[in-house]
Amino acid sequence: MADKEVTVAVPEERVPEFYAWFAAFLAAEPGTPPPLGLRGRHGPRGFRHHGEATAWSAADADQAAWLYGKLAPPARELFDLLAEAPGERFGGEDIAKRLGLEKGAHGVAGILAWPGRYSRHVGRVLPIATDGRPDGGTDYYMDPDVADLFAGARQGPRTRSRGGRRRRSQR
Description:
The protein has 171 residues and is α+β, with helices and mostly antiparallel strands. It has 7 helices and 7 strands.
């Protein structure tokens, strides 16, 4: 059966939660009830988060490195693509082709489920922004400041040296 394009408005602060729900929906067997159990006592899958998620800032380098380290390979490829082109908008189908995703634009939404959860875990919004397109699709991008933060996160966690300068951690 062919896919049907469906466009829905989702409050911006709930987009990561929607992606998590949508990924669970796509993973479920057809005809089963919608996935309602994504939230436990402490939020998605037991993660604790308090209050509203905030935007990423330059002060979040450690959290960005932690998040980047948690990403599955397809999510990491998506983050790399967007971080290497700050502010540039990519359509969902274009991203799917570049990353070789079988489910097309729907696969992009699925990739963002866990990054959304991890972002909420550290009290931040999903670092990837979205905008609807006139054709009903979605554009994905990283704001330049966020792209710079995640470009730095690709180099791994950092620690402070005795002199106060940042250096790479030794593992």
